[in-house]
Amino acid sequence: MNKTSALLPPSGPPRVLAVAQFVNSLGDGAYYATSALYFTTVVGLAPARVGLALTLAWAVGSVAGVPLGRAADRRGPRGTAVLLALATASAVAAFLVVRGFWPFLAAACAYATAQSGLSAARRALLAGLVPPAARTGLLAHLQSTLNAGLALGAGAGGLALYAGSRAGFLAVFALDAVAFLVCALILAALPRVVPPAAPAGPRRRAAVLRDRPYVAVTLLNAVLLLRLPLLSLGVPLWIAERTEAPQWLASALFVLNTVGVTAFQVRAARGVRSLGTAARAVRRSGVVLFASCAVSALSAVAGSPWWAAGALVAGGVLFVAGEMLHSAGSWQIGFDLAPAGRTGEYQGFFGTGVAVARTLGPLLLTALLVGWGVPGWLLLGALFVAASWATGPVVRWAAASRRTPVHCQPKVDTPEVSTYG
């Protein structure tokens, strides 16, 4: 692997993909920081209706990811990604004018659908531009870039929150829409990827749903992805309800996570080059996440704010390490088990784990952490360990079920493509 910074991959298509990711995440960071208050104060919806609409929207988006990923496989990932980036920009722009529940629900469904499809199409595009051995490394760079962009975007959103004006909120959403427009232009500058020939045999719709080993891997990955709402929802609720730690510590832990992933994700992914090393990384991630849960639970043992804060920070450091190991391993597994010609479809399905975790996670984490306390933390950690250790045997089952090599590289209509080589 070439020696590059944590944020910048090698020049050529990998760097263009990173720039597109950065621009995209700038807008998303501002959106995430302000969306809850924007939807309640500007759009004028009750918080419960916002939650209902977003839950329904992401459920629709998770289902749409598979057919949109399949469209990227058939029509070409670059053009599909550009169209879906434009569709996302349009959906964000719609938030600027919608008022009322039903228009908001329609815009939210369009946004979630376009985002889910865009994620699958971009993964298919990456698979077409980068050789298999370099994909996890590039995804690590993209994850670092994503976190850097989110942090800067969240800072811009924070300025809007500080101002508290309607104009400030509108400016943030306009920024997000423009970011997706620029992202589409950047993606359009990439080489065109010619889709590879489909695997032998009849091409059935939603073939991934009949691939039982891949479905099992995706379900196990969804369990490990419960770490996503843990940081954004579970820990803040735990701090407020069960510890003496100051509530601002939740924001500090988010910053710690963002900075940690930005700085070290590339290094954490360097040893992941095959299904075997990926399965080992996922297994280690489960152990580290269990340790994070156990240490975080100690924050409620004593009544001291300093003790609680120290335990939560220590747990947060372990959480970053577990997250990075899981991310690196899951990227490699998700790509390596996807048949040639169906990367978009398979990545679309693999990405539903995020929607499942974000949909079911809040209910589960609230029950475990707020309701059960310390035993809930330990049970959550045990879930992480069980899912991570089951991943290895399921990956071996999936690999054994493949009759043809999965590393068939699509054609790129350019004479030379820079890679990690």
Helix content range = over 70%
Task: Domain count, please report it.
Answer: 2
Query: Biggest β-sheet: count, sense, barrel?
Result: 2 strands, antiparallel
What is the H level of CATH, i.e. the homologous superfamily of the largest domain?
MFS general substrate transporter like domains
First-residue to last-residue Cα separation: 7 Å
Query: Low-confidence parts, pLDDT < 50 over ≥5 residues?
Result: 404-421
- CA-based shape: globular
What's the CATH C level of the largest domain?
Mainly Alpha
User: In what order do the strands lie side by side in the largest sheet?
Assistant: 1-2
Q: What percent of residues are in strands?
A: under 5%
SS class: mainly alpha
CATH topology name of the largest domain = Growth Hormone, Chain: A
Radius of gyration: 21 Å
Average pLDDT metric: 86
Please provide the count of β strands.
2
* CATH architecture descriptor name of the largest domain: Up-down Bundle
Name the helix and strand elements from N-terminus to C-terminus, one letter apiece.
HHHHHHEHHHHHHHHE
Number of helices: 14
Describe this structure as you would to a colleague.
The chain has a two-stranded antiparallel ribbon. It has 2 domains: 9-192, MFS general substrate transporter like domains (Growth Hormone, Chain: A), CATH 1.20.1250; 207-407, Growth Hormone, Chain: A (Up-down Bundle), CATH 1.20.1250. The model is unreliable at 404-421 (pLDDT under 50). It starts with 12 loop residues before the first helix and ends in a 9-residue tail after the last strand. Helices cover 77% and strands 1% of the residues. With 421 residues, the chain is mostly helical. The protein has 14 helices and 2 strands. Helix 1 (13-42) runs antiparallel to helix 6 and helix 5 packs antiparallel against helix 6 (166-188).
